[in-house]
Amino acid sequence: MSTTIKITLVLNLLHLLFVAALVRSDQNTLPLRSFKISENAKYDCVDIFKQPGLNHPLLQNHTIQIAGVRSRAGPFHGVEAWYDGYALNVGRYQISYSQIFIGSRLNNQNNFIQAGYIINPGFFRTGQLWTYAFWKGKDGKGCYNTAFDGFIQVSRKFPIVQPIDLKPGVPDWSRWSIHQKLVAYSISNGPNEDIGYWSKELFNLIDNGATTVGVGGAVQASGSGESPPMGNGNFPVGGRLDSALVTNIEVLDSNYNNRKMNSFPTEIMVYSPKCYGVRLVR
């Protein structure tokens, strides 16, 4: 029996203390690389530790809240799901994410890959919804998108990061998958499109499979402690389409077979139930 997951966004299990590429970087920050998405959209990639927004005092004590589901019954070789991204009212010093992820943790080390949607006005200089991906590998190295070497772009149609034009209340539906360090992305009802991949040499804990997979959402509060909305901002208490929706969640198991996520033991994660929620619909 398949499981549909309705949440006020989708989950991030791991550390979301970094942020992505900038649209027009600070004049005092030298871009590592610049990309032109369209005639009206260009972004610069900068060192994630040197982004000008990180100097703002409101970001010194930011907090992160999570809602979603995960399974720790690995090893896993991938995860995929359909979910929706919405235009949200996210403040300049707030962030709202939705993504799928795979990862492993051993002692104080983490390896993980996550991909999905992000709204980050303080760094993208726009309140638009963007696609993104992030990886963390051996020696603690990792980054967003193509800011540093590591991610190999192969698609000529879809960049790993791009703005999504949305009308309020009308979501962008997409299917995301991470298959053994290969990200495949397709728009709603469209054919799969491999965006690119990370080489196995970058990782030491997930090169033979990850111990955890999941889907979910996370928000980063401003320094004042005020958190932005997840998903479409509604609690999952009404009909199927009243709140954000994650569906057709499948996991690539230890034998590289696709299986429904509810074939494995799953764990619901809600850090702040007064603000966010998760509802499983079978």
Automatic annotation (TrEMBL):
Keyword list, A-Z: Signal
GO MF term list: phosphatidylinositol-4,5-bisphosphate phospholipase C activity
UniProt xrefs under Pfam families: Neprosin
Top-rank taxon: Eukaryota
PROSITE patterns recorded: NEPROSIN_PEP_CD, PIPLC_Y_DOMAIN
One of the protein's GO biological processes: lipid metabolic process
Residue stretches making up the PI-PLC Y-box domain: 64-125
Key word Aminoacyl-tRNA synthetase present: no
PANTHER family per the UniProt record, alphabetical: NEPROSIN DOMAIN-CONTAINING PROTEIN-RELATED, PROTEIN, PUTATIVE (DUF239)-RELATED-RELATED
Protein name, per record: Uncharacterized protein
Organism: Arabidopsis lyrata subsp. lyrata (Lyre-leaved rock-cress)
